[in-house]
Amino acid sequence: FYYDFWGPNYKAMENKHVIIIGGGMGGLSAGTYLRMNGYDTTIFEMSGNPGGLCTSWERKNYKVDLCIHWLVGSGKGSSFYERWNELIRMEEIRFVNHDEYFRMEDQQGKYISVFTNLDLLESEFLLKAPEDEKEIRKFIKAVRKFLSLDLIPGKSDDIANLWEKMKVGWKLLPYLPCFASYIKYSCRDYSKKFKNPLLRKTIEYLFDPEMSIVFSMMAITWFHKKTAGYPIGGSLNFALKVYDRYIESGGAINFGAKVVKILTENNKAIGVELENGETHFAEYIISAADGHATIFEMLGGMYTNEKLLEFYKTAKTFPSLVFVALGIRKDFAGQPRSVFLPAAKPIYLDPETKLSEVGFYIHNFDKTLAPAGSTLITCMLETRNYDYWNKLHRDDPAQYESEKKRIAGELIEILDKRYGGAKENVEMIDVATPVTFKNSSGNWKGSFEGWLLTPETGFRRLSHTLPGLDNFYMCGQWVAIGGGLPGVLSSGRDTAEIICHKDKILFKVISPEKAKVPEMA
C-alpha cells in the first residue's frame, strides 16, 4: 500500500472499484472512508440531491427542514464528536443546545416541561406530579447511571475478534442492571407506571411511543451533557458538508440514477443495472439503499435465511409521516423548540390513524429557515397506513390534495387557538405524505427512518453481509437499528473497514486537515 513520507495518501497501488447504491448519509460515509483507504468509488443516487432524508428544501421564502432535531456527537463530551471530525470539521458548525426539549400541554393550559438539565427535569416532574414522586426519583436515578456511558461502537461483529467483543461487553457491564430493568419497556408501556395523566403523556412522547424507554433515557443524558445540539442551517446544510468531503476525496456520484438490479455471478456481486438499462461493474457492491428493496427486489430474494426473513416479518420499522410545514409571519420568540398541543377534536390522518395531540416544532432558534419576523413550524404526524395514502394518490388525486389541505387547516386552527394571530399570517403551507417519502427515498412503507429500537430488538445491529453472497455489503438505516445519523455514520465506516479487512489492508482514517486531494487523471 502506498504511503508517502508526509503522511497517508489516497493512492493505492492497484485500486479496486466499489459501487455504492444510495447517496444518503450511509452511502456518503462508506464512500468517504473507502476513498481514505485507496478505493475508487461510484455512488448511484436515485434522486437529484445527496443526503437522502437528511434534507431541506425551499418553499417560497422559507427553508423547510426535515431531519435533524438534535445530533448525537455535536459536543466534545461525546466520542461521536471525534467520529464526525473524521469526516467534517465540526468546529465550523454552530450548534444550539436547547434548555427545554419539549413541552406537553393539556386542554386546561397546564403543562410539563422536559428540561435538558437533569436537576431541572427532576424538579419539574416533582412539582407537576407530586403523586408520582417515587417513580420519578427512580427514573431520574436510572437516567443518571447512564451519564458516564459513551456509546462509541467497537468494530463490526462481522470482523471483531473475541477479545474486541469482550472489551465492549466489559465496558457495558456496569450498566447491564439498568438496561435489564428498563429495556423491556417501550415509552408507552413505561408511561403507565405514572398516575398523573399529563406526566403519563409526557413520558409516552419522550421519543417515539413504540421506542424503548432506554433510548429516551440515554437521549436525556446527551442533552444534559450538551452533546446533542441542533446545527444552525438545517439538515441539508449538514449533509452537504459530508458530501463535499466525499467529492473532495475524489469520489464520484451519479444523480438521477436508480438501481433496479444487483448483478451476480457464481454467488458474487459483480455490478448493478440502472432503470435506464445501463450496467456498471465493480469488485464490490454496497447497498446503502432501502433494505427491503435491496434484498427482495434488487436481489430477487435469493440471498436470505430463516433468521433474516423472520426479522423482516416481525421487526417494526419507523412509521411513515404526514409532514406539514407552515411558514407564519409571526415571531414565536420565547416559545419552546417543541410543544405538544391538545386537539379540540381528533385529527384523522387516515381511517386507521387519529391524533388527540400534535407535536409542533417551532424553529424560532434558526433564523436561516425563515424571513425576518417570521417562523417555520413543522409537524411530524406518524401513520402506518401507507397503503391508504398510496391508493388515494393513485386513484383519486383531487381527494389526495384535498386531504392534505384539510389536515394542514386543522393544524393551523390548533396553533391559532393556542397562540393567536397564526391563521391570518400563514404565508406558506407544504404537506408531504407517506407517498412522498416512498418516492423520494425508496424506503419500505414510506418509513422516515429504518428499524425502530424496540424492547424486542434491543441495541443490536444487523450483519453488513447477506448469506451466500460474496463481495456484497449493506450499510445505513437498514443495518443500524434505532435510526439516527450517528448509527448511519458508523455503519458506513464499518463497511469500509470490513472491505479493507477482506483485502488485508490496514484500515486508516484521514482527517479533513490531513487529507490530500488525489491527482485526477
Q: What's the overall geometry?
A: globular
Distance between the termini: 20 Å
Strand order of the largest sheet: 10-9-18-19-20-17-21
**Percent of residues in beta strands?**
15-25%
Number of strands: 22
Q: By helix and strand content, what is the structural category?
A: alpha+beta
Low-confidence stretches: 1-13
Q: Which range best describes the helical content: under 10%, 10-25%, 25-40%, 40-55%, 55-70% or over 70%?
A: 25-40%
How would you describe what is shown here?
With 521 residues, this protein is of the alpha+beta class. It contains 16 helices and 22 strands. The strands form six sheets. It has a seven-stranded mixed sheet, with helices on both faces. Strands 12-4-3-16-22 form a five-stranded parallel sheet, covered by helices on one side. Helix 1 packs parallel to helix 16 (485-502), helix 3 runs antiparallel to helix 4 (133-145) and helix 13 (386-395) packs across helix 14 (397-419). The longest helix is centred in the C-terminal third of the chain and has 23 residues, at 397-419. The radius of gyration is 23 Å and the shape is globular.
